[in-house]
Amino acid sequence: MIVFYDDATARRFEPFATTRPLGEMRTGALLQRERWQHVIGADALGFVSSPHLHGFEEFDAPPVLRGELPVNSWLVNTRAVPLLTSVASTASVLVIEHRVAAVRLASAVSIDQLQDPSFTLEDVIPSTGSMANLPGVWLDDVWDVIAHLQTLLVDDIPAYAMRLGASPMTDGRASIIGGHPVFVEAGATIEPYAVFDTTGGPVLLREGAVVQAFTRVVGPCYIGRQSTVVGDRIAGCSIGDVCRVHGEVSSSIFVGHANKGHDGFVGHSVLGRWVNLGAGTITSNLKNTYGSVALWTPDGIRDSKLQFLGTLFGDHAKTGIGLRLTTGCVVGAGANVFNAMPPKVVPPFAWGEHAPYGVFAVDKFIETAERMMGRRQMYMTDSARVWWRRVHELASSDVRWAR
Averaged over 150-166, what is the pLDDT? Predict the structure, then answer.
């Protein structure tokens, strides 16, 4: 069994750390949890993260753990990203880029020990056992999910397609430009006049995915289950399950169940779960000076060292029609903003047409969230409502976010 551990750095990966453990973030084609399950070949037992995430529930995500971690369970640092082509090892310590990524516990470990900010996996390395090096990368900053996206997709897609039994398309349903394959899982739909440009990498379409006519899909690109791409150019993206994506989109991640149903450029951005972008919402991902992009973090504005970086949208964030977003923008979870261009950072559960924003009332937020989820035949549980109220209270008063 696998335990997913968010260390002190991962717990500051905003705007996502407000509402989800890092194991439920998409890196490359998969969620981090799914990636490690494939590499280790074991099921998820649970996660350990910030106390405010106690009560987090989402589809098949494992629960928060309490008490002790059992002997022989794998403790994984969620900031470590192994390539899917990694070979399963019998070693008890897995290393990526000279850092310990996962340890098989030789003795029980208290959850309290993992809540100490100074704790590292090196603290629980067994006295006996072997180490194995895995190919992969680390997420040292929240923007690294974008920095490593293309590399991970190129590696993930063929390996994942093989595990899924998805075959390369050979029946001429669409035009293919380039030498990499287009993998299609049974149940995916490709309409006439779709074009796949695989010059830069492969494409994978999951079961129930739909590529509508006159869409150009540029690899490497992953389109998840029951997701629909609707015209224009979708390039270098990882689109999770049950999304609707229209307009020009490049090098971006959709965690899942998000809507970008209309025109408007989105580039080098991350859309959390249940995000909805109003028609004509546009992200800037390149400065006029062509310099590196700075981004708000809980530790202040920092230089990402990336030339291309758009907007990070927290879970359940919403934008109004025609909204423009500045380069390197952070929109907090549950924010609902419209009309004027927001500043570099929008606090969680912000509401309004310009800064300084008001607070999105918790009852109205939950009502809006439930309406959107209901359109996907998903429904919020009573326990989830209680949890969202607690998150709303904590995040709305968090002094790290300037209002």
Answer: 96
